Every structure is written in structure tokens, then in C-alpha cells.
Amino acid sequence: MGILMEGILLEKVIIYGSVAFIVLVILGIYFFKLRRETKQTEKKISFAKEHGLFEPVSLHPVININSCIRSGACVRACPEKDVLGISSGRGTVINASRCIGHGACFHACPVEAITLCIGTEKRGVDLPHVSEKFETNIKGIYIAGELGGMGLIKNAVEQGRQAVENIMKDLPESKPDQLDLVIIGAGPAGISASLTAKQHKLKFVTLEQDTLGGTVYTFPRSKIVMTNQMDLPGWGKVKLHETSKEELLKLWNNALSKNGIEIRQETKVEEIIHNDGSFIIKTKTGDELKTSRVLLSIGRRGTPRKLGVPGEISEKVAYRLLEPEDIHNKKIMVVGGGDSAVESAMLLADNNKVILSYRSDAFSRIKPGNSTRITKAIEAGDVEVRFSTNVAEIHPESVILKNSVTGEEEIIPNDLVYIFAGGELPTKFLEKVGIKITRKHGEALLKH
Predict the structure, then answer these.
(1) 117 φ, ψ to 5°?
(2) Rounded to whole angstroms, how far apart are CA atoms 88 and 65?
(3) Which of 12, 26, 236, 435 is the most buried (most CB within 10 A)?
(4) Where are the alpha helices (DSSP H) in 131-266?
(5) β-strand 204-207 against 179-184: which pairing, if any?
């Protein structure tokens, strides 16, 4: 009996010991993986801080570490790489400046530990005052999309629709001598608003200072990524997964064509004048439109300044660098002489052949640190700089560069062009209209 009990006890010891060993192995693997993941994340954060990518530009996630359950759902859901990561098992922000407001992390978090905020304690973001109905402090003028802080396609499309629905609730009786609504801007919010206005049989006009293609092609990525489908008014359910700019443009045009909507392109609004309860819209071309309501769906960052050269409206051209780590073995032309151009050229130079074109004969307005780094990059042959040059033409496989001193032109093989020529910010335009601008310091725009 004693021998039997000893045998049973030994068997249990072996079983429990084996289970304990397996558990220890699993825990060891887990903690090893966690430690490695944390080190990788900390390394990425250091790189982001060194290259000025850590501070958010606009909308960005804020993670409540006390609520985070370490599921990693936010990291997996984010379509942009390395915006979020895992450190010590918890979600953390890495490259906040690359966040472009998808909100996928917000929706993916199983415990609602993420809030989407605008601005930080150090860096405030100026935004127009907008009510929950999308109306500004000026009665009759509404804002939807990126200008109000919520960019990205799905958010902007939904806001464009909601803004028009709210306008309908407070729209005065239609008058024969004026429009019901003028929509300014033909990005995702403006297109959605136009389609919604058409559904409600409003008398409206949509004005776009560029071309519809120009609006789409200013997107920073060559591929548009969405994790959730959107409901495009007058068209139906749409899911964009790795959709090219050209495919997106085709979608917009098809939706507009199907609903008989024509956008007035290359029509820049110069002034909005109050007129006894209505508004007069003055354009750069000299047109005057009288309307009951106005919806602004222009970009918050302002309009990227274009070069105005043949071929600029092309999928290979972008005005903001978002994914340098994903670009390899390309011939790239970076245009500009400010910090954005210099920093982008150096980031791209790690895995590509980069030529930086600048119209002046020397850098004169960049930070001292960037000046030192670009000088070293030039000396090492990592970046080739062409001073006193301007892009004359952009072709599918090349760029024609013109020397402003000699007048000589050179055909340069090329895959991608990044233009950093500044922008025309809308702040003065809004202030002239009378729209109140407030500075947001880390305020929540989207929370559970």
C-alpha cells in the first residue's frame, strides 16, 4: 500500500512538475517576446523623437494605460505602420505625427481605452468653432471634414452627409433668386455633401479651387487604406482596401456622374459676404453666387502650393511624406528647400536614390540641426542636391529639371515626386468671414 501511494505521489509530482515546466516555458517565451517587443518599440520611439515624428500634427490617439488590457488590437487595426506599438505589454504611441485620423484603433479597442484627441499640452491646434450640428458661430455657415479636425475618408464622408442633414432641418424656404446651398471643396466631405444635397433635391453648387483629381492626388499615400466600409450617399456601401488614388478618383466620378452632379472645378472662393440672412460667394473668376447656406469642406492644413507644371496631376506626385520606411529602390525627386523637404529627403535616402531640387542657390531657412545633417548626407553621397533648379515637367518615368541660371534642361529618370512648396493656409480666410478660431490643447474629438 505504501509503495502504491508513493507511486501515485511520484506520478502526480511528475505530472504537476511537467505542467509547471510547460507553464514556465510559456511564460518565459511570453516575457522574452514582451521584452523584445518593448525594446523594438523604444528604439522606434527614439527614432521618432530624433526625426521629429513623435509629436502629433493633428488628430491622434491617446491611450489610457490603466484601462489597457494589452490585447494589441489597436496596433493590428491601424492601417499606417508604426503609429502605435507595444511597450511593457501596453499600447503606446510611436510616430504620432504620421497618424492621419483613421480612428481604426479607437473602434478596435475592446475596453474603450483609446480617445482621439486634437493638439497636445505643448502644441495647440487651431480649429474653427463648430457645434454638434456642424454649424459655426456664423449662423448658416457649416464645416465638415478635415477643416473641423476629422479628416480621412470614412469620417469625412459621414460628416458631409450629416452636415447636409442638419442644414435641411434649418433651411429657409427656397427663393427663386438664390441657391439653397453652396458647398466649397470637393474632397470626401464635399462629395458626400453634394450627393446628399442631390438626394434632398436642393438647389446647390459645389466649388473646387483645384480639380477633383487634384484633391485626390494630394493624399499622402499612393494607396488609400480603410478598415471599415463606408456608406457613400447615392452610391451605396464602399470598402477601400489598398485602393489607388486613380481608383478612388474613378469612384468619385462614377458616383457624381450617376447622380448627375457636376463639380465647378478650378473655381477658388475669394470672399463670403453676409447679405441679410443669406450669403454672397465671390470667386476668383469673378462669379457671384447668392445662397441661403454654406458648407465649408476644405482642408485644415491648407492647400498645398502647386508647381503648376505639366504632369503634376499624377499618382506619382505627393505633397506630404507618410510612409518612408515602405519605399525601397525608387528614384525620387524631392522639391523644396525648407525643413520638411530636407527631412523627407534624408528619410527617403536610406533605401532609395534621392535628388533634392531647390530653386535657390543655398539652404537659408532650415533648422541648424537639419543643416548639419543634410551637409553630411551630401558629403557622404546619400542625397544629391540640385540648387538653382526648378521642375519643368513631370512624366511617368522621368522629370525634366531646368537650371534657373543657365537655362539648361535635364531629363532625370524618376519614380516618385514629393513636393514641399508650402501651403495656403485657410485661417485668414475663415477669420475674414468671421468664423471663430480656437486653439485645442489635447481635447477629445472622439471618445466613448
Answers:
(1) -120, 160
(2) 11
(3) 435
(4) 153-169, 188-199, 212-217, 245-258
(5) parallel
Vertex 57 angle, CA 139 and 65, to 5°: 105
The tens digit of pLDDT for each residue in 7-24 reads 666 666 677 777 777 777
263, 212 Cβ separation under 8 angstroms? yes
Distances (CA, A) of 124 to 84, 146, 383: 21, 16, 34
Residue 243 parent element (H or E): strand 243-244
Q: Which amino acid is at 393?
A: E
Inter-residue contact 295 to 195 (CB < 8 Å): no
Cα 270 to chain centroid, rounded = 25
Where helices occur in 291-420 by DSSP H, the ranges are 339-348, 368-379
Domains parsed from the chain with CATH numbers: 34-122 (3.30.70.20), 126-305+425-441 (3.50.50.60), 317-421 (3.50.50.60)
Q: Which residue positions in the chain have pLDDT lower than 70?
A: 1-13, 25, 27, 29-32, 34, 48, 50-54, 57-58, 100-102, 149-152, 213-215, 217-228, 242, 300-303, 423-425, 442, 446-448
Determine the angle formed by the axes of helices 368-379 and 339-348, rounding to 10 degrees.
40
> Taking the model in full, what pTM does it have?
0.69
Strands (E), 89-184: 90-93, 114-118, 125-128, 141-143, 179-184
* 130 residue type, one letter: V
C-alpha pair distances (Å), 448 with each of 102, 103, 108, 229: 16, 12, 12, 20
Contacts 24+ apart (CB under 8 A), 129-134: 129/435, 129/436, 129/437, 129/438, 133/166, 134/159, 134/162, 134/163, 134/166
CA 99 from centroid of its chain's CA atoms: 7
Smallest CA-to-CA distance from 448 within 116, 79, 104, 77 is with 116
Buried b (16+ CB within 10 A) or exposed e, 30-58: eeeeeeebbeebeebbeebeeeebbebbb
Strands 278-283 and 288-296: antiparallel
Grid coordinates standing for 156? 469625412
Q: Are 59 and 115 in contact (CB under 8 A)?
A: no
Strand 303-304 relative to strand 317-318, pairing = unpaired
Nearest to 204 by CA among 261, 144, 288: 261
Residues in the chain: 448
* Single-letter amino acid code for the residue at 438: T
